[in-house]
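Need tokens for this chain, all 438 residues.
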Amino acid sequence: MADDGATKHKVVIIGGGFGGLLAAQGLDKQPVDVTMIDRRNFHLFQPLLYQVATGGLSPANIASPLRGILRHQRNTRVLLGEVIGFDLTAKHVQLKDGTEVPFDSLIVATGSTHHYFGNDKWEEFAPGLKTIEDATEIRRRVLSAFERAERSTDAAERARLLTFVVVGGGPTGVEMAGAIRELALHTMRYDFRAIDPATCKVIIVEGQNRVLGAFHESLSAKALRALNGMGIEVKLDCHVTEITATSVTVKPDGGKAEPYKIETANVVWGAGVKGSPLGKILAKAAGIETDRAGRVPVNGDCTISNRPDIFVVGDLASFKGADGKPLPGLAPVAIQQGQYVASTIVRRLKGESPGGNFKYWDKGSMATIGRAQAVGESMGIRFSGYIAWLGWLFIHVLYIARFENRVLVMIQWFWNYVTRNRAARLITGERSTDARSG
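Here are the structure tokens for all 438 residues:
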């Protein structure tokens, strides 16, 4: 076994998200040694993080241990560690603890992080939604705002605490705003005595002239009507110019309208993402530049520059589609690229022809707005309402990594739908000054 392992082609995968995981699974039972490295020991289903942030699901519902997912792949091992550098000449990956992991083929799939467009100080007041920690922190802030409003006797302070601003009108922003409104309007409506949670204000601030800008205009219009019908205020053609602990400053585009403040204690950032910091480290080691969003430019076969042994997939890759624009940072893109790269490596080892460049098959896009409300489009067909919502549920369950998690999510969703209850409404993340209190 040891001798065979020494002669096998070594594939190192950095990142256990959709791209990295599908690449690893595509190399199952192949004559390679696969090493997956991740800072976390689990694969996270990011599209449902907003439901963790609003108490609909618990973190364990959408996260699966990587070792559990890959335990039957005898040619694969999982390392818990943080990559901090690359020696591309010696073909080593450098870990924070000093370990060097050799590779023959390298797949980098570390995803993306929040992009504040040069205003990183805003992150303190407006967390994004990329990790479980982000989701539980947002949940803490949202639920704590209602608790603080219940105790406040100042009308202005109550209004500020019960105002929620979501920056960005893409799928993340729309889904987050809808979930907060439903939480207040239905789940917690009768939980308090001094306040009525249903009176809360949820505001979306979007820089474009419509929400869900990547969708067809007719679907954007339907989504806007659905949001307004839920009591969500949408400010279009507006940009955020300042965020503090007590307010958001908004500037309307065009005209002579002056910037104005929205008094709020609750801001969620959903306006942009950029490649993970490891992208710049890899680009520097390879002698290339990242794009403005920190993504690594890749060739048609997902390799970088003149290095056929190094692949970048998923949100970290700047891959131009048929229209000349970079592919969006969506789970289906990462999944298909991970599968493609695995098959490319296998073809090379077998001495077969490459099989052509990567081509993304766009199966469509979907976004949920609220209970029984969603929009979607696939192969030129556009749909909305209850049918789109059911389709959204089915697709998301299908993409969850493990069967156990699929069952748990479906049970929780059914219970939430019947009772309008969100059972995971836990305020965590702050230690009590007195462990005996409460």
